[in-house]
Amino acid sequence: MPLKNLLYRVYERQLLNELKGKQLPKHVGVILDGNRRWATGKGSTSRSGHAAGAKKIVEFLLWCDELDIPVRTLWLLSTENLQRDESELKNLLEVIESSVNELAATQRWRINLVGAKGAIPQPLASSIAQAVSDTQNLIDKPLINVAIAYGGRREVVDAVKSWIRLQSDKGLSANQLIDELNDAEISAHLYTKGQPDPDLVIRTSGEQRLSGFLLWQSAHSEFYFCEAYWPAFRRIDFLRALRAFTQRQRRYGL
């Protein structure tokens, strides 16, 4: 075994030992950033970057399985991404479709869509719906939220609209609607309704912003920004993020 790999193994074991007995996150959200920049650095195409990023998803989910993290949210496609160049968008949608199909085929994880269903192009929309249907009975398996055609502001707007529609047949006045609406009602109509909010949000590629990811749900989340591009994200990077999480004192705004 090359010396570098041996040192990585030793360091991984050290990090795992540091996590023993610690309270790990129940829900981890990840902004999978840097596929194109990783590919550019390799002198390759954006499609190869997205393909490498898709391959990393399976590795990441297996790392989470080993540590019994029950809920993971992966931001695969933002609403802004839908405005990309037609050729690149086509390649990206094909890679995402293949990745979602692969995840569902394993029957290891329960797939859930987090995003604006009506904004997802075909045939990706049909593939996601099938993946959700094929895994919905796996209630004892970890939950994987695939955030596709997702935007944090849109999610909040959609939640409010959904709540108003539900109240429309009650004949309430505008003032009554205002009095009835509260944060619990909005939470109950988010794409992630019924799920715990993320304890930890990770963003790769060195960018230190959330870009609206889980905008409402991340109010009390811990954030970890990693320099590595997503395709180059290693198990030790993930373990470092978890170690940083365990070292923080969570105050929940108090």
Please summarize the sheet with the most strands.
Answer: 6 strands, parallel
Number of strands: 6
Bulk shape: globular
Query: Under the CATH scheme, which class?
Result: Alpha Beta
Approximately how much beta-strand content do the residues carry? Answer: 5-15%
What's the number of helices? 9
Q: How many separate structural domains? A: 1
How would you describe this protein?
The chain is 46% helix and 13% strand. It has a six-stranded parallel β-sheet, sandwiched between helices. It has nine helices and six strands. The chain has a single domain (24-246), classed as Decaprenyl diphosphate synthase-like (Undecaprenyl pyrophosphate synthetase, 3-Layer(aba) Sandwich). The chain starts with a helix and ends in an 8-residue tail after the last helix. Strand 3, helix 5 and strand 4 (143-150) form a beta-alpha-beta unit. The longest helix has 21 residues, at 46-66. Helix 1 (3-19) packs parallel to helix 9 and helix 2 (35-41) crosses helix 3. It is of the alpha/beta class and 254 residues long.
